[in-house]
Structures are given as C-alpha cells and as structure tokens.
Give the backbone structure.
Amino acid sequence: MSDPTTTALNPTETNPLRSYYVFLIVFVLLAALTIAVSLFFMHSAVVSFDGVFARSDDVTRAQVMLENVSRLLLEVNAAGNDIFETRNLQQETARFRQASAQLRRTLADAPTAHFPRSDFEAHFNEMLRAEERIFSLFAEIQDPAGTKRPEQEILGEAAARMAEMDRAQLHAMSVLRETANALIREHQVIQDEGRRVLNERWWRELVVLTFVAVSLGSGWFLWRQLQHVHEHFVREQQRVQEERRNRLASVGEVCFSVAHGIKNPVAAIASSAQLVLEYGQLDDASRQRVADLLTSTRSLGDRVTQLLNFSRVGPTHRERFTPKDVFTWSLREIERTLQDQGVRVVREDGADHTIIEGDRNILVQAVQELLGNAKDVLPGGGTITLRVVTPQEDPKSVELCVVDDGPGMPDDVKKRAFELFFTRKPRGTGVGLATVRRAVELHQGSVRILDARPHGADVRIRLPRVPDAGGRAAQ
C-alpha cells in the first residue's frame, strides 16, 4: 500500500500558475504602491515649489511697488524744489498734486505684508505739509498786496520749509531702502528654502524612481516631471541673477534714450539764445537773462554728452598711439582754462614710447574728464601732474596717471567714485567718472584712485600695451 503522503497532490502541482498569480498580484500591488508613493512625493514637491514660486512672485511685485513709490516720491519732492527756480506756482502745484495723488493710489494698493505703510506715511505726510507751506509762501510772494513781509524774509522761510521737506523725504526713502533690503533677504530665504526642499526630497525620489523603473517604468516619467520642475526652478534663479547683472547695462540704454531725446532740443535752444544775444534789441537785464539761459543750455548739453558717452557699446575707430599723445590731445582744449584758474600742468611722460591701441576720442574724453575733476578741486590754483607709469605687477600694461595736489578723497568716496549717479558736487550728475570707467573698460582696461603725496588724488588709467610695438603711433 502506498504512503498517503506520497499520493496526496501538492497544490502547486494542481495549479502551477498560482505562484505566478501571487507574484503578479504582489508585483502589481507593489507597482501601484510605488506609483502612489511616487505621485504623493511628486505632488508634495510640486506644492512646495508652487509655494516658493508664489512667495517669490509676491516679493517681486512688492519690489516693483517699492520702485514705483520711490519714483513718485522723487517727483513729489521735485516740485517743491523746482519752484525756487521756475517760480511757476501753477505748474509746480499741479505737478505736486498729480504726483502725490498717484503716490497715494499706489500706497492704497500696496501689500501690507511687505510694506510698513504707517512709518512711511508719517514721513510722507510731514513732507507734504512742508511742501504745501512752500507753495503757500510763493503764493504770498506773487500777491504782494496781501502781505506786509519783505520777499527775502518769505524766501528764507520757504528755504527752511524746503529743508524740512528734504529731511522728511530722506526719512521716507530710508523706510523704502530698509523695506527693499528686507525683500532682498526674504528672496534669499525663499531660494534657500527651495534648495532645502529639493535636497530633502531628492533621496526619496531616487528610491521611488528605482522602484518605478523596476515595476513598469512609470517612475521614469515621474522622475522626469520632477526634473522639469527642478530645471524650471533653476532657470528662474538664473533669470533673476541675470536680470540683476543686466541692470547696469539697462541704465546705459536708458541714458542713451534720454540723452538722445533731449540733445537736439537743447541744441536748438542754445542756437536761438545765441542769435537773440547777438542780434536782439535787449536791455541789460534781458541780455543777462539770455546769457544765463545760454550758459545753462551749454551745461545741459555737456551733461547730455556725458550720458551719450556712458551709453557707448564699444570703440568706433581703433588706431595706435602713445600715452603721451593722449595727454597732448586732452590738453589742447582745456589747457587755457587751467591756466586761467592758476593751475599748473607738469608733464612727466618723458620719452616713453609705449604703444596702446583704441579709440582716441573715447580715451581723450576720459582724460579730459579727469582733468576737469582735478581743476574743480583746485579753485585757488595748484598743480596737476600727468605721468606715465609701468606697473610692476603687470608689465604688459601701462598706466596714465592724473595727479592733483588738492585735498584728496576719503576712502569711502574712493570706493564709490566710479558708481553711476554718485557725486559730491552740488550740481554734479554722477556720470563723469562712471563714463571714465566705462571708456576704460571698453579698451579692456581698468581705473583706480590712489592717494597722492603729500596730499591729493592720483587717478590711474591702466591699459594693455600693444604686443608688437612696431607700428607707428598716430600723430
């Protein structure tokens, strides 16, 4: 008789596909679980990144709003300052009303989460009160029958109110700067948070992607989707950084647009004023006013030229010459002015035959700008030394030095001297030295400011030498 244990059927033998069914079911369940986990992680990552992008967009909108508020604040303040020159009460008052109303509308739409409205409005309202008082004082001047005070007394009070207005504007701008800095810090926090979210989820996604690749390959698709989100985030970061790098270039384009738009009208005004001055039948007072107008238009024309020089994109004509030639060409137009002011020019360029290459007009204008600045710090006369130096640390370059024996520059001013729109002159534009730096950079050079001995400033333009100096310099 057979052993019953040997004659009993094995369930796996009666159904050989059962183990495969179990494996298939487990495999499908594992794949479904993997896909579910992958979808969960994907959704969580997308939600996190959406939150980061939403916060980033909020900060960007707040930054745009701050720029608009800053621009309008300057427009409101400009009316209170310009009335001292224009004396056009109706025009400046309308300009003031329009700018202040637009600023208030902007403030009404400002997001309170990113903007300390109460602090800003306190300074802004103080500024408005001072400016309204200025307009009322000028109204009093224009209606002499309604006041018994002399005009000089009224102007003195108006000047005091203007100082109050400027202080209030400065405080308001400080609030805007602090808010802008806070937004920059918040933008950095958002970026760090995005990177942290990405790093926290990356290893989990790798595990999920491995299981998905083993199961049905669906994980590859999900992983690619997550990669797309990551690449989009990286591109957004790069775009923001590129925009920041391009802001200065954009300022150059704006300078060109503004300068080009006003150059021809300024030239027409200057020509008309010159004709009136030469051929018009004018009394002495009118002749003086026309002369003042002509002087102002010429000054404005010089500033327009500075803006156009700053907006250059590169040398238009290259030729070879020596640093000594640059100094000679630069002195032709300004040497008489220096002599009239009692400024002595000392040449120490000697017999140096170093050859440089570039656009002579651009370099001459840069050196003339340095000579003009040196003249301005020597109102009572002094000495300007023009020197050619070979730097020891870079023998392939040459330095054109403009040295004055004036009071010199503080260290904090030297650090910012070449920044666009930075100036310490009451009527300066802050474009001159920025134009010098741009002109030098267009020639692959650099510019720096050192202390002269025993006192004064030593501005050095460093330019590359021509490797083969066999060519003739321009005469």
Remarks:
- Residues 1-17, 470-475 have pLDDT under 50 and may be disordered.
- Residues 22-216 form a domain with the Four Helix Bundle (Hemerythrin (Met), subunit A) fold (CATH 1.20.120).
- The CA atoms of residues 123 and 168 lie 5 Å apart.
- The chain has twelve helices and seven strands.
